[in-house]
Amino acid sequence: MSDFLNIATVALVVLAQSSLQLNLGGLILLYHASAGKHRRRKTRYLAKSYIWGAMAVNFLAVCSSCFVADRLFSGKLSALWMLATIGVLVACGIVMWTLYYRGGKNTETWMPRSFARYIRKKSRNADDNISAFSLGMLSSFAEMPLSLALYLIAGNAILQTSANIQIILIVAYTLLTALPMFVLKLRMKTGANVIAAQRWRVRNKKFIRFVSGSSFLILGLFIFTFWVL
Amino acid sequence: MARKKISYEYSRAGVEQSILASARSARIPEGWAKQIAKRVADGTDRWIEDKDTVTEGDLRRVIVRELKEISPELAFAYSNHDKII
């Protein structure tokens, strides 16, 4: 398998992962809660810690999946495991299209309401960098049911590349999956307000849902074509 | 599992504070935000004066209704902050 195909696989995984909305939603919540009670400078620091927290989990998860692929699957997932993962990806794609968002003019996700309340409470109480960092980690963990298969695919693809670009791919993966949060942070820095960002998400909910679901299905098809057949 | 029902006294200051917090996140200038908070709190005072008990949901709906007339953006912020995730 050429490096080009492995990089293309990782790129598709990044697309699917960055279309998940919990990290971004958590950051908007944090901005909303923090802007109401702190100075802008402090809000910026909290947002930075949140992004670091989310990135730390993504980084560790993809490293762990590399380790798992190496130790449990001798460096490469078998065709049978690939097919099982493709099944999970297709299921995730359908879930993204149908169940990911709740109805109404909002961006509430599939998460149980009690857990969403817990995250909201945590974001209201995030007054220091450690709490913001752990909130970022929590939001990444909460997305695991949908992102676990993505980590496995990414880890497997990264392991197939030559050794000198593996670490570059892991770092690129971590940075690119955090891109939506960087963009939001940049928009906040340049004077936009968090309400405009949330209004955009509500207005484009159907589009985001379509892109997310499609990216999972396209990834499944891509893996089936180039890794299984 | 039944959720705990908590009762507390209506507080005009609480209403003003919650509107001011939303106004800050919408980056509305402080003076204008205080005026909005005062006008909305006047409205909720008028609405609540002939009622013995109200739910938090009712109070929020009244606040959003009042806010929509003054600042639709702030009304959106206030009504949506618990529906982000």
How does this structure look, described?
The complex is a heterodimer of chains A (229) and B (85). Chain A has one domain (3-228). Chain A has eleven helices and no strands. Chain A has helices at residues 3-18, 22-35, 40-72, 79-98, 113-125, 129-142, 144-160, 163-177, 179-189, 194-203, 205-228. Chain A is mostly helical and 229 residues long. Chain B has 85 residues and is mainly α. Chain B has a domain at 33-85. Helix content of chain B is 67%, strand content 0%. In chain B, helix 1 (12-25) packs antiparallel against helix 2, helix 2 (30-48) crosses helix 3 and helix 3 packs antiparallel against helix 4. The longest helix of chain B is centred in the middle third of the chain and has 19 residues, at 30-48. Chain B is globular, with a radius of gyration of 13 Å. The A-B interface holds A 21-22, 25-26, 28-29, 31-33, 35-37, 104, 106-109, 111, 116, 119-120, 191, 193-195, 198-199, 202 and B 20-22, 24-27, 73, 76-77, 80-85.
Short description:
Chain A has about 230 residues and is an all-alpha fold.
